[in-house]
Structure prediction request, 119 residues.
Amino acid sequence: MKIATEKEDKGFLPDGRHLVEITAIEEGTSEHQNVPFFAARMESADGFVTQRFYNSPAGHPIILSLYAAVGIQPHDGKDLDTKELVGKHLSVEVSDHSYADPATGNERSVRQATGFRAA
Prediction:
């Protein structure tokens, strides 16, 4: 079996606040509760972080804060389009987040972006 690999030029962004550009959006469904999400890849010259945004009542305020940080305001009756985020710039706080894996109960850590602000 041959396994194709791509060289990743950038590693994860270090802890702290960074000015980033959203370079890609991927859509999916959470592994444990089937909640739809989009994952935004955010990059700078120093590295990248990929952040999931869950389309749920609890996730909507976080999604709206991301859109506000990039200057997109929602309008009543009009859906937000995640494709509009690609190419937008913002400031994010990067850190590790630990949580208990729902399937195993084991502690896991993920690199995350929070504290969205206009660039």
Q: What stands out?
A: The two ends are 45 Å apart (CA to CA). The mean pLDDT is 92.
